[in-house]
Specification:
By secondary structure, this protein is of the alpha+beta class. It contains five helices and four strands. The chain is about 35% helix and about 15% strand. Helix 1 (about 30-40) links the parallel strand 1 and strand 2. It is elongated and about 80 Å long.
């Protein structure tokens, strides 16, 4: 606190605060609250934070999220399109910011990919037809959630 010896209120001074992985090890309830907590406690600070959490990203204001996007040859900065506060966490996960293809578990994603491969096959063996039926059944039972579109193909 030596820097702020002449300030009566160091938390209200103007500053730039950089925080890497602001939500690291925080419970999702705290991840939802960290942005407001910092904004309230440090009203005159410009905050630059990083996160890998869609829960935290969802709390950011519109047009403040910048994403580092890596392709085969380079890394570039891209603004998040839209208002994260009006976006479902699953939508954030499947946006360019997080890059997932699906919100399904890895197991269900592989099952869906196998299903699509078998469904689109011109000729199936009896074993493959049975597997296709089993994949439909398995997905219909998946965690008690409503059936997804790929079950009906």
């Amino acid at each position: 606190m030596e820097v702020f010896d002449d300030y009566s209120s160091p938390l209200s001074t103007r500053a730039l605060l950089l925080i890497d992985e602001v939500d690291l090890h925080l419970h999702p309830k705290w991840q939802r609250a960290i942005y407001d907590f910092l904004d309230t406690r440090l009203p005159n600070c410009q905050l630059i934070v990083t996160t890998h959490s869609p829960v935290t990203a969802q709390q950011a204001d519109e047009s403040v999220i910048q994403c580092l996007i890596r392709d085969r040859t380079s890394v570039h900065l891209e603004s998040f399109a839209g208002d994260p506060g009006k976006t479902l966490i699953s939508q954030l996960l499947m946006s360019a910011a997080f890059g997932l293809k699906t919100d399904e578990s890895v197991e269900m994603e592989k099952a869906r990919e196998r299903y699509e491969k078998l469904r689109d096959k011109k000729r199936r063996t009896k074993k493959e037809s049975k597997e296709l039926t089993e994949l439909k059944k398995r997905h219909a039972e998946y965690a008690g959630f409503p059936q997804r579109e790929w079950c009906y193909g």
